[in-house]
Specification:
By secondary structure, this protein is α/β, with parallel strands linked by helices. It contains 18 helices and 14 strands. The chain has a 6-stranded parallel sheet, sandwiched between helices.
Length: 437
């Protein structure tokens, strides 16, 4: 069985590699020639634990190939996944230009029956747009080649994507064809031997399922951050509240940690997109509009704590920042809270010295010399007036107090609530966190 994956970004590369790992012949396509040549050499465009080794192994075994030619990629394939980016447009809607461009090229080059599957996160109605474009291109060729379209949204977590892909807790598929169902069943059979289901539904429902899932998780995060800020007003502790509600099976323990807000490639983009789609259909998603507003404010919370601590004047201050990526185990800085904090601090005349285990190069690409970069966390704090913990990498979990003495200001702003307040204060530090006494 052969499949084609169009797009070697986060979703396409991880998905294609995992299909190859299961013994499926997989051709990954990208228009970026340098990226394709790098992949053939084992050079990854993203940082994801375990990905480099898996790509190299499957490429060497011949199960995984890379190309710039769409005709080569889809030749002999039974299914073709569209996994290109859908960045937010200026109005917040998902930009479908890359998805629809791929659909056009598929229609121009396909030679046999193909299941065309949107893996990209797309709004309701996208599959039908893909279908119309492919039909139009086939008609131009006077071709009657049959094809089907399907929706198969991904639910990968950055930093744990390989495990999520190889052992999914569910696979959502939207189709309207029994022939497509059989191919997708065979394609995913190796992934569901753990008993977790393939959930079939209509195509619009599958397209909306992904947005709804991310919107729900974003809602939990913003809700807890809102409650955390309320805790500070009344002297309550958000960590105690989290334990109290997390033990309720109806709520669960996941995504109820207070912090500096959500970022990344999915939640901000998808919340904006579902709000926009609803507005276009004369329905206002008021809860999600509040979720977005709360998250925007939460990214500024450490800045306001710092301004209050320093009596409104941080000009000339030096701040160390631990963590630049939007979450641990990734170098992704899209919509990262660190970017907002850096912008606010530097606009007030402060100097920021940043450290991150893997995201320094990505930070340089995004913000250049706006901050200084250091390759060791305890070198970053030397002579700093305060430390900001922004991303909860495991190497930050235990403070080395003798090394911490390099810091001049003895002030810690913990944006992820990973330190014990009593312990930190007993060492002589002023300590701020989110929603705790």
């Amino acid at each position: 069985m052969k499949i084609s994956i169009i797009g070697t970004g986060y979703v396409g590369l991880v998905s294609g590699t995992c299909f190859a790992e299961m013994g499926i012949e997989t051709s990954c396509l990208d228009i970026d020639e340098k990226k394709i040549e790098n992949l053939k050499k084992g050079i990854m465009p993203i940082w994801e634990p375990g990905l480099e080794q898996m790509v190299t192994r499957n490429y060497e075994k011949g199960r995984l190939s890379f190309t710039n030619e769409i005709a080569e990629s889809i030749k002999g394939a039974e299914a073709c996944f569209i996994a290109v980016g859908t960045p937010p447009d200026e109005d917040g809607s998902a930009d479908l230009q890359y998805v629809l461009s791929v659909a056009k090229e598929i229609g121009q080059n396909m030679q046999d029956y193909l299941v065309i599957i949107t893996k990209s996160t797309v709004p309701v109605g996208t599959a039908e747009k893909v279908r119309k474009i492919v039909k139009k291109e086939l008609k131009k060729r006077n071709s009657d080649i049959e094809f089907d379209v399907a929706s198969n949204p991904e639910f990968l977590k950055e930093g744990d994507a390989i495990e999520d892909c190889l052992h999914p807790d569910r696979i959502v598929v939207g189709t309207d064809s029994e022939r497509a169902n059989k191919i997708i069943d065979r394609l995913y059979k190796p992934f569901v031997l753990n008993g977790h289901p393939i959930i079939y539904m209509d195509i619009p429902s599958a397209e909306l399922t992904k947005y709804t899932a991310n919107a729900m998780l974003a809602t939990k995060i913003s809700f807890m951050n809102d409650i955390a800020n309320f805790c500070e007003k009344v002297g309550a502790d958000i960590n105690s509240i989290r334990k109290g509600i997390g033990s309720d099976k109806r709520i669960g323990p996941y995504f109820i940690y207070a912090g500096t807000g959500y970022g990344g490639s999915c939640f901000p983009k998808d919340v904006k997109a579902i709000i926009k789609t609803a507005d276009e259909n004369n329905h206002s998603l008021e809860i999600l509009k509040s979720v977005e507003a709360v998250n925007d404010r939460q990214k500024e919370v450490l800045f306001h704590k710092a301004m209050k601590h320093f009596d409104g004047d941080i000009k000339g201050k030096t701040f160390a920042m631990w963590g630049l990526s939007f979450k641990p185990n990734t170098d992704d800085m899209r919509e990262a809270p660190a970017l907002v904090l850096i912008d606010l601090l530097t606009k007030q005349g402060a100097k920021v010295i940043g450290y991150d285990p893997v995201a320094i190069e990505e930070a340089k690409r995004r913000i250049g010399n706006k901050i200084e970069y250091i390759q060791n966390p305890y070198d970053a704090i030397k002579d700093a007036d305060a430390l900001f913990l922004v991303t909860e990498w495991t190497e930050f979990r235990v403070l080395n107090y003798p090394l911490l003495e390099k810091m001049k200001g003895k002030v810690i702003f913990d944006g992820r609530n990973i330190y014990d307040p009593d312990e930190v204060r007993s060492k002589g530090y002023t300590y701020y966190s989110i929603g705790r006494k």
